[in-house]
Design goal:
With 260 residues, this protein is α+β, with helices and mostly antiparallel strands. It has seven helices and ten strands. Helix 5 runs antiparallel to helix 7. The longest helix has 19 residues.
């Protein structure tokens, strides 16, 4: 599960939205309140044909999306062409490795805050302010020592049952025997496991996990092989995207869609 950010250039926002709304209303009218599985196949085919005709009349794609005034922007970065961030596309998972969590853990503004947003959806950010913000965050992140932290706490669906080091070791050995070829970190009801990605742990700090109600936890601080180079590069591509927009004669035509 993650946050994806997409960039679109919309040359006539009002017409784009109006045409999509016309199609949406027409679709609702044709399908009505019937359950999809109750509609005869011949009727379904007839409805789809009518929708295809209406979409073409309105300059829309096959799913009712505007393709006349709206263009998706997604280009390889000039700085980091192999990165999974691109000019016009940002990705952040909600787990501990997502860029928003990495920035939050360091007390820095995340992607939402960089663009001055409070929630997901389609927005037209203040790109000039966003450029100032991302440069400030980058300056801080480049000074970071490259440590990461994860919070390990009991499973929310059951009380902890392990009461000895011997029992913990037995559980680990059982996981090891059934995940010999695992090259990825994973978690299950028994705990967190890093068979193929061992952590270089430097500190174990007892604390409280407040994410899903207060629970005792251990904060695991570790040094990763690549430090935070990936996240610095990601923010450099965010900056690159903003500069790409601001270099255009009409930056106000560039809208961002933030998925939830």
């Amino acid at each position: 599960m993650g946050l994806d950010v997409y960039l679109y250039r919309i040359t006539d926002y009002k017409k784009s939205k109006a045409n999509e709304k016309i199609y949406e209303d027409y679709s609702d009218q044709l399908w009505g309140d019937r359950k999809y599985e109750d509609i005869p196949e011949d009727d379904k085919l007839a409805i789809r044909n009518k929708l295809d005709i209406r979409a073409k009349e309105l300059g829309l794609g096959s799913y009712g999306e505007d393709i006349t005034y709206k263009e998706k922007i997604e280009l390889p970065s000039d700085l980091h062409p192999d990165h999974n961030f691109r000019i016009g596309y940002f990705r952040s998972s909600y787990n501990g490795s997502g860029i928003n969590r990495i920035l939050e853990n360091r007390g820095l503004s995340d992607l939402f805050e960089i663009f001055g947003l409070e929630d997901a959806g389609e927005v037209l950010p203040d790109y000039e302010q966003a450029l100032i913000n991302v440069k400030e965050v980058l300056a801080e992140l480049r000074q970071d020592k490259g440590y990461h932290v994860e919070c390990v706490s009991g499973n929310i669906f059951r009380e902890p049952t392990v009461t000895s080091q011997a029992e913990a070791l037995r559980i680990f050995e059982n996981e090891l025997s059934t995940h010999l070829d695992s090259s990825n970190a994973y978690s299950n009801i028994n705990g967190e496991f890093y068979m193929g990605q061992p952590l270089n742990v430097v500190a174990l700090i007892p604390g409280i996990d407040n994410t899903l109600g207060k629970r005792n936890c251990t904060y695991v601080v570790y040094k990763s092989e690549n430090g935070i180079a990936y996240y610095i590069q990601a923010l450099e591509i965010v900056q690159e995207t903003i500069e790409f927009i601001l270099a255009h004669e009409n930056p106000q035509e560039f809208y961002m869609y933030w998925s939830a």
